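Revision sheet: structure tokens.
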Amino acid sequence: MKERVIVIVGDEAHRYALARRLTEQNIYCEAFGTAASPAQIAAPNPAGIIAAGGGFKKDSLPAGVPVLTAADENADLDPFLYQECGLSRSADFSDFVSAALAALKVRLAGKKTLCALSGGVDSAVTAALIHKVNPDGLTCVFVDHGLLRKGEAEEVMRVFKDERGMNVVKIAAAGRYLDRLKGVEEPNRKRKIIGEEFIRIFEEEAKKLGKVQFLAQGTIYPDVIESATHIDPETGSMSKFQPYRVYNAGVSLTF
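Predicted:
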């Protein structure tokens, strides 16, 4: 994909809002916090960069790429996007698979990857891409939290483990989840409990695998911007950090 726009904004809500505006206009973008390295910014060969809110070093931006350094959430971005950057109004994703596979093959060679597999489209695509280039290094973790549709857990294992030959570890955690959710009525609190337990389970599985270099999570990009987790390859512990699609100690691999 040639028409990429990089968004560099320190404030998470502002970063999310700008990235969402671009994707709603069918423009492919990748969003970073101000701690992004020059290599991360330049690697996708962007058509333009929106670096708003301060906190970044202008000399770290690649030469020759149009840069917009003042953009609030309601700013008119069209002159910058379509005149300065020369973008069309429809991102071309025709080479997505080949580009993603090529990038994954280089980055994941000889490394271990722990992938969150739910059986949904996003996680399934992520797992399938990684499995294609590094099947021996991939471990998928499927958490049966007791909140699935009838027969869904069995179907996920049949499709991904039995039919596609992926290394899938099923975690039977229904009792664990339901115990923590008992008596909780507030929806947002339920959401947080489910997320916390998910992270704890991944920590446990990462430690069982030994040194794991990557945590892979398939999701829609706005959710990647809003929330992400970093796995420490030495300890298996997880924490919040600047969000990217495939994580490795703060180094990004986004498609």
